[in-house]
Amino acid sequence: MLSTIVWITYEFCTQSHLSSEDYDQAMQGLKMTRWFKRHLIWCYSIPAAVVGQVKILLNKILGGSVSPRRNSLL
Q1: Which of 47, 44, 36, 46 is nearest to 9 (CA)?
Q2: Which of 1, 5, 40, 47 is most solvent-facing, going by the fewest CB within 10 Å?
Q3: CA dist 61 to 39, 49, 51, 55, Å?
Q4: What is the pLDDT of residues 5-43, one digit of tens each?
């Protein structure tokens, strides 16, 4: 439940500037979105790195039956 709320909030913060009819407000919203994404990159890069390392480890243990690339969210 918490992860869903966090995801919805993240999507709102990254797309809320798209509905502005005023160009200046839209540009300000885009700048805020870029700042937001730049400062939260660790939220998705660290888990992606951990998943990649676990897949590499499982690939070594299981003898090549696990793809080392991340093809999906699971």
Answers
A1: 36
A2: 1
A3: 36, 18, 15, 10
A4: 887 887 877 776 666 788 888 888 888 888 888 888 877
pTM above 0.70, yes or no: no
* CA–CA gap between residue 39 and residue 51 (Å, rounded): 21
Could you give the CA distance from residue 2 to residue 6 in angstroms, rounded to a whole number?
A: 6
Return all residues near 66 (Cβ < 8 A) that are at least 6 apart: 55, 58, 59
Helix (H, G, I), strand (E, B) or coil at 20: coil
CA dist., res. 70 & res. 67, Å (int): 7
Q: Is 64 helix (H, G, I), strand (E, B) or coil?
A: coil
The single residue listed with the structure tokens 């790195």 is 49
> Would you say 61 and 54 are in contact if contact means Cβ atoms under 8 Å apart?
no
